[in-house]
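For practice. Supply one:
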Amino acid sequence: MSDVDLLRKALSAEHAAVWAYGLVGARTTGALRARATAAFDAHRARRDQLRTLITQRGGKPSEAEPSYDVTIPTTPTQSARLAAHVENGITAAYLELVSATDPSLRRYAATAMQESTTRSYTFHPTIPPFPGMPPTPPATPPPTTHPTTS
Protein backbone atom coordinates (compact mmCIF):
# COMPACT_ATOMS: atom_id res chain seq x y z
CA MET A 1 0.00 0.00 0.00
CA SER A 2 1.18 3.50 -0.74
CA ASP A 3 1.43 6.15 1.98
CA VAL A 4 -1.65 7.83 0.50
CA ASP A 5 -3.61 4.56 0.70
CA LEU A 6 -2.57 4.16 4.33
CA LEU A 7 -3.59 7.74 5.07
CA ARG A 8 -6.96 7.15 3.43
CA LYS A 9 -7.53 4.11 5.63
CA ALA A 10 -6.77 6.16 8.74
CA LEU A 11 -9.05 8.91 7.41
CA SER A 12 -11.91 6.42 6.99
CA ALA A 13 -11.47 5.38 10.62
CA GLU A 14 -11.51 9.02 11.72
CA HIS A 15 -14.72 9.63 9.75
CA ALA A 16 -16.32 6.72 11.60
CA ALA A 17 -15.04 8.02 14.95
CA VAL A 18 -16.48 11.49 14.38
CA TRP A 19 -19.84 9.95 13.48
CA ALA A 20 -19.86 7.60 16.49
CA TYR A 21 -18.86 10.31 18.96
CA GLY A 22 -21.71 12.47 17.70
CA LEU A 23 -23.97 9.59 18.67
CA VAL A 24 -22.30 9.06 22.05
CA GLY A 25 -22.37 12.76 22.88
CA ALA A 26 -26.06 13.01 22.04
CA ARG A 27 -26.90 10.18 24.45
CA THR A 28 -24.78 11.08 27.48
CA THR A 29 -24.46 13.76 30.13
CA GLY A 30 -21.98 14.96 32.71
CA ALA A 31 -18.38 13.78 32.78
CA LEU A 32 -18.97 11.08 30.15
CA ARG A 33 -20.34 13.66 27.74
CA ALA A 34 -17.40 15.97 28.42
CA ARG A 35 -14.94 13.13 27.60
CA ALA A 36 -16.95 12.23 24.49
CA THR A 37 -16.94 15.87 23.36
CA ALA A 38 -13.16 16.11 23.84
CA ALA A 39 -12.72 12.88 21.84
CA PHE A 40 -15.06 14.18 19.12
CA ASP A 41 -12.96 17.35 18.84
CA ALA A 42 -9.70 15.36 18.76
CA HIS A 43 -10.97 13.10 16.00
CA ARG A 44 -12.26 16.01 13.94
CA ALA A 45 -8.82 17.62 14.18
CA ARG A 46 -7.11 14.37 13.12
CA ARG A 47 -9.61 13.95 10.29
CA ASP A 48 -8.82 17.42 9.01
CA GLN A 49 -5.05 16.82 9.33
CA LEU A 50 -5.33 13.57 7.38
CA ARG A 51 -7.29 15.28 4.61
CA THR A 52 -4.47 17.83 4.33
CA LEU A 53 -1.75 15.15 4.36
CA ILE A 54 -3.50 13.24 1.58
CA THR A 55 -4.02 16.35 -0.54
CA GLN A 56 -0.38 17.43 -0.06
CA ARG A 57 0.69 14.07 -1.48
CA GLY A 58 -1.53 14.46 -4.56
CA GLY A 59 -4.28 12.12 -3.33
CA LYS A 60 -8.00 12.60 -3.03
CA PRO A 61 -9.35 12.24 0.53
CA SER A 62 -12.15 9.75 1.09
CA GLU A 63 -15.51 11.05 2.23
CA ALA A 64 -17.49 9.92 5.25
CA GLU A 65 -20.21 7.32 4.92
CA PRO A 66 -23.78 8.54 5.53
CA SER A 67 -23.96 6.21 8.56
CA TYR A 68 -22.10 3.35 10.18
CA ASP A 69 -23.26 -0.04 11.46
CA VAL A 70 -23.21 0.28 15.24
CA THR A 71 -25.58 -0.64 18.00
CA ILE A 72 -27.18 2.58 19.21
CA PRO A 73 -26.21 3.03 22.87
CA THR A 74 -29.07 3.56 25.29
CA THR A 75 -27.16 3.61 28.58
CA PRO A 76 -24.01 5.34 29.77
CA THR A 77 -22.26 1.95 29.98
CA GLN A 78 -23.14 1.16 26.36
CA SER A 79 -21.98 4.62 25.30
CA ALA A 80 -18.64 4.16 27.07
CA ARG A 81 -18.19 0.73 25.46
CA LEU A 82 -18.93 2.16 22.02
CA ALA A 83 -16.36 4.91 22.61
CA ALA A 84 -13.74 2.34 23.68
CA HIS A 85 -14.58 0.20 20.63
CA VAL A 86 -14.13 3.22 18.36
CA GLU A 87 -10.76 4.03 19.92
CA ASN A 88 -9.57 0.45 19.52
CA GLY A 89 -10.52 0.65 15.83
CA ILE A 90 -8.60 3.90 15.50
CA THR A 91 -5.54 2.27 17.07
CA ALA A 92 -5.73 -0.55 14.53
CA ALA A 93 -6.04 1.89 11.61
CA TYR A 94 -3.00 3.86 12.72
CA LEU A 95 -1.06 0.65 13.31
CA GLU A 96 -1.13 0.18 9.54
CA LEU A 97 0.04 3.76 8.98
CA VAL A 98 3.16 2.96 11.02
CA SER A 99 4.34 1.03 7.94
CA ALA A 100 4.44 4.23 5.85
CA THR A 101 7.65 4.99 3.98
CA ASP A 102 7.69 8.58 5.24
CA PRO A 103 9.20 8.70 8.78
CA SER A 104 7.08 11.72 9.71
CA LEU A 105 3.93 9.69 8.98
CA ARG A 106 5.22 6.85 11.17
CA ARG A 107 5.71 9.32 14.05
CA TYR A 108 2.27 10.81 13.39
CA ALA A 109 0.72 7.33 13.51
CA ALA A 110 2.55 6.39 16.71
CA THR A 111 1.28 9.53 18.43
CA ALA A 112 -2.27 8.92 17.22
CA MET A 113 -2.12 5.33 18.51
CA GLN A 114 -0.92 6.51 21.91
CA GLU A 115 -3.76 9.03 22.13
CA SER A 116 -6.46 6.57 21.05
CA THR A 117 -5.24 3.87 23.43
CA THR A 118 -5.30 6.35 26.30
CA ARG A 119 -8.80 7.52 25.37
CA SER A 120 -10.02 3.93 25.11
CA TYR A 121 -8.81 3.24 28.62
CA THR A 122 -10.62 6.30 30.01
CA PHE A 123 -13.91 5.02 28.60
CA HIS A 124 -13.50 1.34 29.45
CA PRO A 125 -10.51 0.56 31.65
CA THR A 126 -9.48 -2.73 30.15
CA ILE A 127 -6.49 -3.33 27.97
CA PRO A 128 -7.31 -5.30 24.85
CA PRO A 129 -4.55 -7.19 23.06
CA PHE A 130 -2.51 -4.97 20.78
CA PRO A 131 -4.03 -5.14 17.27
CA GLY A 132 -2.63 -8.14 15.46
CA MET A 133 -1.45 -9.84 18.63
CA PRO A 134 -3.13 -12.88 20.19
CA PRO A 135 -4.89 -12.46 23.51
CA THR A 136 -2.75 -12.98 26.58
CA PRO A 137 -2.88 -16.67 27.48
CA PRO A 138 -4.06 -17.55 30.97
CA ALA A 139 -1.33 -17.89 33.53
CA THR A 140 0.08 -21.38 33.71
CA PRO A 141 0.14 -22.74 37.23
CA PRO A 142 3.61 -23.63 38.47
CA PRO A 143 4.45 -27.32 38.25
CA THR A 144 3.65 -29.22 41.36
CA THR A 145 6.39 -31.05 43.10
CA HIS A 146 5.88 -34.20 45.03
CA PRO A 147 7.95 -34.80 48.10
CA THR A 148 10.22 -37.75 47.72
CA THR A 149 10.12 -40.42 50.32
CA SER A 150 13.31 -41.71 51.77
Observations:
- The CA atoms of residues 53 and 75 lie 37 Å apart.
- The chain has one domain: 3-123.
